[in-house]
């Protein structure tokens, strides 16, 4: 899976004021990502506000993204949720043309046991025609995929090829990297953790702030891949404040405001998310000027 090495970005879904999808801005954003050196794109990860999109809207976004990219960079589709049967059917019926893998978030809200998480991914792996990237983000899901469960899945299913890890648990990262099979990889799911995770052996990042600053993020990942950590640190520290502001009032609210300031549409989000406050807007503007 060389397609998922380096810098990937979890694309936002731009909206108009009436809540409809702003495909023109999405197209402009895709072009921006490719021209600025992103290695691959993730369509409809959690940053894409997938939980508030209908099935038909998801199909339209995937089709539009595939048509716009035209094979210039690899594409990953986000298909995950807390209803295993529904996700299995979605994966089974997914039109794989133009996509290289599926990113599937661990079940949220249900708070399953480790056995439940294992059985969830087992069911997906048994029907998927594409390689699968696990996604562990306890801050969103309310439960952690343990290293033991990750390794169990990696060793039993050859089509489970990586995990996007956003737990912040470096002991867990180290255990996965130490004991994983050769085909399985670790990807940072948290922008500020990219440098130290890649120093341990992760192969890259699926970024949020990369929506707005793809050149910084791609350069950081490429420097880390070349073990040029001193140069990478400069970018790491430069991005810290703006990355924090992406999340201070919820994701993707912060990065959508940054993109608005950069000329990429408006910062509309779907409820229950709301646009960032004027106070955070001011902080973002200051951080953008410093960049």
From TrEMBL:
Pathway: Amino-acid biosynthesis; L-lysine biosynthesis via DAP pathway; (S)-tetrahydrodipicolinate from L-aspartate: step 3/4. The active site is at 135 (proton donor/acceptor), 164 (schiff-base intermediate with substrate). Keywords: Amino-acid biosynthesis, Cytoplasm, Diaminopimelate biosynthesis, Lyase, Lysine biosynthesis, Schiff base. The keyword Lyase applies. CDD domains: DHDPS. The record marks 46, 109 as: Part of a proton relay during catalysis. Its EC number is 4.3.3.7. It is an enzyme of class 4 (lyase). It catalyses: L-aspartate 4-semialdehyde + pyruvate = (2S,4S)-4-hydroxy-2,3,4,5-tetrahydrodipicolinate + H2O + H(+). The keyword Ubl conjugation does not apply. It is found in: Cytoplasm. Pyruvate binds at residues 47, 206. SMART domains: DHDPS. HAMAP family: DapA (MF_00418). PANTHER family: 4-HYDROXY-2-OXOGLUTARATE ALDOLASE, MITOCHONDRIAL, DIHYDRODIPICOLINATE SYNTHASE. Homotetramer; dimer of dimers. Belongs to the DapA family. Catalyzes the condensation of (S)-aspartate-beta-semialdehyde [(S)-ASA] and pyruvate to 4-hydroxy-tetrahydrodipicolinate (HTPA). NCBIfam families: dapA (TIGR00674). This is 4-hydroxy-tetrahydrodipicolinate synthase.
């Amino acid at each position: 899976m060389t397609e998922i090495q380096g810098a990937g970005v979890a694309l936002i879904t731009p909206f108009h004021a009436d809540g409809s999808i702003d495909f023109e801005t999405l197209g402009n954003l895709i072009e921006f990502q490719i021209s600025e050196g992103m290695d691959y794109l993730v369509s409809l990860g959690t940053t894409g506000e997938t939980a508030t999109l209908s099935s038909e809207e998801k199909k339209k976004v995937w089709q539009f993204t595939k048509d716009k990219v035209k094979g210039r960079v690899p594409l990953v589709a986000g298909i995950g949720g807390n209803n295993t049967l529904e996700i299995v059917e979605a994966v089974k019926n997914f039109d794989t043309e133009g996509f290289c893998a599926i990113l599937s978030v661990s079940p949220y809200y249900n708070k399953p046991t480790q056995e439940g998480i294992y059985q969830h991914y087992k069911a997906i792996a048994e029907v998927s025609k594409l390689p699968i990237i696990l996604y562990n983000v306890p801050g969103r899901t309310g439960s952690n995929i343990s290293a033991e469960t990750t390794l169990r899945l990696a060793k039993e299913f050859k089509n489970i090829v990586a995990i996007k890890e956003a737990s912040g648990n470096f002991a867990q990262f180290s255990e996965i990297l130490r004991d994983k099979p050769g085909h399985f990889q670790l990807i940072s799911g948290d922008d500020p953790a990219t440098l130290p995770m890649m120093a341990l052996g992760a192969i890259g990042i699926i970024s949020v702030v990369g929506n707005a600053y793809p050149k910084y993020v791609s350069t950081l990942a490429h420097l880390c891949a070349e073990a040029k950590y001193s140069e990478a640190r400069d970018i790491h520290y430069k991005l810290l404040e703006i990355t924090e502001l992406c999340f201070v009032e919820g994701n993707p609210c912060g990065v959508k405001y940054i993109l608005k300031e950069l000329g990429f549409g408006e910062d509309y989000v779907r409820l229950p998310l709301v646009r960032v406050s004027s106070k955070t807007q001011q902080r973002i503007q200051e951080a953008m000027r410093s960049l």
